[in-house]
Amino acid sequence: MAATATAPRTRTTRTAPQDPPAPRAGEGMEIWETTTAGRVWVTVTERGKERETSVGGKVGAKLRISEDDRQVNQDRCYEPSGDPFINGLLRRVDAGATPDDNSEHALDERQLMVGFAKSGKAFHAYVDKLNELNTRRMRDLCERVDASQSQVAYLDKVIKERYRIEGDTETYRELKRLERAEVL
After folding, report:
1. Are β-strands 29-34 and 62-66 bridged in parallel, bridged antiparallel, or unpaired?
2. How far apart are CA 134 and CA 137, in angstroms?
3. pTM of the predicted model, to two decimals?
4. 49-69, pLDDT tens digit by residue?
5. How many CB atoms lie within 10 A of CB 111?
6. In what order do the strands lie in the sheet with 29-34?
7. Higher pLDDT, 1 or 112
8. Cβ pair 136, 167 in contact under 8 A
């Protein structure tokens, strides 16, 4: 019998899935991502003329905007709560983003779901730090994450005491309209 050589066996290891690398925006440009299914309207300048454009309709929709256009949009906001770049509606995702670019309100769904793992005073403290948009988004997640009755009751109480029933922002009303349209 002739001896045959076999290749040594190699062991394959599985690694946890990694987030894809952040997209590159280019010089003077930024890429922002929506955190809700609602639409966000911004003014952009093309060929010296201003025009309105929207991004959204789904979570994770991307907006490519120049730094100057973003600054103009932020300067036009009467209150910081109406600024989508700091109120949590948009979060910066390009390779040039720094932790300071996103406000503490720029939370995605996974980050909101973390709050449901807390109970009692820890849950209350978590919710108390949220802005209106994220509080309402968290309330909308209750059924999907099988939240406890006390968590649902606390979120309802916070919304009733702090915010108007119909919502304070045009964006939130747009989000609810889109959700109703998808159901029909």
Report:
1. antiparallel
2. 5
3. 0.50
4. 988 988 888 888 898 888 889
5. 11
6. 62-66, 29-34, 90-92
7. 112
8. yes
